[in-house]
Amino acid sequence: MTKTITFNELRAIKDSLPDGTIHCIADELGISVETVRNYFGGQNFKEGKCCGVHIEPGPDGGIVVLSDTSILERALEILKEKQKAPAMAEA
């Protein structure tokens, strides 16, 4: 399943993730930390791999077509868990 998102939206998701999340996603999916960083716009292809990300220039940093959404889906799940945590603490 492919997903199209702007580069700025993708970076905002990455920037919203709690510290250590990149390492957790890498461990859970069995990939290198640098591969996860490359997914979110990094450029270290000596240590990490490209993982189905295609960037086209344009507004909002350009358009990103993700052919593999597993990293994005896990990042969004973590953000949902993060949003629920304060509500659960108040209950």
Describe the fold and architecture:
This protein is α+β, with helices and mostly antiparallel strands and 91 residues long. It contains four helices and three strands; from the N terminus they run E-H-H-H-E-E-H. It has helices spanning 7-16, 21-29, 33-39, 70-90, and strands at 3-6, 53-56, 63-66. The protein has a three-stranded antiparallel sheet. Strand 2 and strand 3 (63-66) form a beta hairpin. The longest helix is centred in the C-terminal third of the chain and has 21 residues, at 70-90. The chain is globular. 15% of the residues are buried.
Explain briefly what this protein structure is.
This protein is of the alpha+beta class. The protein is 52% helix and 13% strand. Strands 1-3-2 form a three-stranded antiparallel beta sheet.
Share of residues in strands: 5-15%
For the report, how would you describe the main beta sheet?
3 strands, antiparallel
Tell me the number of helical segments per DSSP (H or I, 4 or more residues long). 4
Shape: globular
The percentage helix is: 40-55%
What structural class do the secondary elements suggest? alpha+beta
**Roughly what is the average pLDDT, rounded to an integer?**
84
Low-confidence stretches: none
Total beta-strand segments = 3
Rounded to the nearest angstrom, the distance between the terminal CA atoms is 37 Å
Biggest sheet strand line-up: 1-3-2
